[in-house]
Amino acid sequence: MTSFVALLRAVNVGGTGRLAMADLRAACGQAGFVDARTHIASGNVVFRSDLDEAGVKAALEGRLAPLTGQPVGVLVRTAHEMSAVLAANPFPDNPPNRTVALFLDQPPTAAALDDVRGRAGERLALGTREIYVAYDGTLLAKPPTPPPLGLQMPVRGLRARQEQVHWSSTSRNGRSRAGHGD
Length: 182
Known about the structure:
This protein is an alpha+beta fold. The protein has helices spanning 21-30, 53-68, 79-87, 158-168; strands spanning 2-8, 34-38, 44-49, 74-78, 99-103, 123-126, 130-134, 155-157. The protein contains four helices and eight strands. The strands form two sheets. The chain has a four-stranded antiparallel beta sheet, with helices on both faces. The chain has a four-stranded antiparallel beta sheet with strand order 6-7-5-8. Helix 3 (79-87) runs antiparallel to helix 4 (158-168).
């Protein structure tokens, strides 16, 4: 089984897409995922599955729409990929609580940062399937938006990603899952 991290778009943010984390874990169980774990009302869930990324995404989106009454965008990474996101952080000297990743379904184009709107001095860099944003001051309520990417873009801080990588590499009893998929 492979360990996955799923990031839900616009869940429990500003009163839209309300979803109890217990319901999210239950939906994961109904989809056949194992050891589903959530953290606060974050819209993040870690679990294991035999499905591939596309299968995980489709299964979870299919389970969540009836719960929220609207489509819920889900972006999925394996635990290995999430570790790679952390390792590839182009702003390692910036505090993790001032650095975020905008997660994308597809790799960003080389021109993705050309017409970014809403910038206020942030530094941006392209990743494999993410865009990194480093804030020098306080973290703003809304990150800069690359125009062509808009819809499927959960924004997550790198500090919380560190915890998810740890969760996805250990079982509920704290034992390592080394050698058990990604």
